[in-house]
Design a protein that fits this description.
Pyruvate-ferredoxin Oxidoreductase, domain 3, alpha/beta
C-alpha cells in the first residue's frame, strides 16, 4: 500500500493525472493486497484483464495470480523471493514451480524482470524496504510518465526520517538491477 501511495504521489509531483485504488482482502491476516494505479487521461482506477501496462509484484505466486491482467504489451517486474503461505508451511499445499511459470509468462508479456528484492532490501539495511527495491526496479525497467527523481521525491516527502536513508538506498539498489 505504501508503494502504491508513493507512485500516486510521484505522479502528482510530475503533474500527471493519477487514480489509485486498493483492494485489501484478507491483508490483515497476511493475505493479498491488490492495488491499481492509472495515469494520464484514464478516468477509471480499475485495470481490467489484459490491460496492464506494468505489473509490479512483491511475491512470485502473486505474479502468477495476476497474470490475467497482462498482455503482450505488459512489463512485469517481480520479486523472485517466495513467501510461502501457511498452507504450504504446514504441508497442506504445494508452492508452484515459479521458474517454470515465469518461463510461460515470459512468452505472454513484453518483458519480465525477476529480482531477489528481499536480498537487496537486506543489503540496504532492512528487509522492510523491499517495496522500495521494487519501486527502483520499476523506475528502471518500465516505461512511466514519471521519473526516478519524482519517485525519490515522493519517498523523501512520505518516509519517516529514521527510514529515509535505508529506503533511498533500497530504491537505488533496485534501480541498479
Amino acid at each position: 500500500m505504501l508503494a502504491t501511495g508513493l507512485i500516486g504521489e510521484a505522479a502528482l509531483i510530475a503533474g500527471v493525472n493519477v487514480n489509485v485504488s486498493e483492494i485489501h482482502g484478507m491483508a490483515q491476516r497476511g493475505g493479498v493486497v491488490e492495488s491499481a494505479v492509472t495515469m494520464g487521461d484514464i478516468m477509471s482506477p480499475i485495470v481490467s484483464d489484459g490491460e496492464a501496462d506494468i505489473l509490479l509484484s512483491f511475491e512470485p505466486s502473486e505474479t502468477l495470480r495476476s497474470g490475467a491482467k497482462c498482455s503482450k504489451l505488459t512489463t512485469v517486474i517481480t520479486n523472485s523471493h517466495p513467501l510461502h503461505p501457511f498452507t504450504v508451511a504446514i504441508g497442506k499445499g504445494v508452492y508452484p514451480d515459479i521458474e517454470a511459470a515465469f518461463e510461460v509468462m515470459r512468452g505472454r508479456v513484453k518483458k519480465l524482470f525477476a529480482i531477489n528484492a528481499n536480498a537487496l532490501a537486506h543489503e540496504a539495511g532492512s528487509v522492510l524496504s523491499m517495496n522500495m527495491v521494487m519501486l527502483g526496479a520499476m523506475a528502471k525497467h518500465a516505461e512511466l510518465p514519471i521519473t526516478p527523481n519524482h519517485l525519490k521525491q515522493a519517498i523523501k516527502e512520505n518516509t519517516k526520517a529514521s527510514f529515509l536513508d535505508i529506503n533511498l538506498k533500497a530504491f537505488d539498489l533496485g534501480y541498479n538491477t
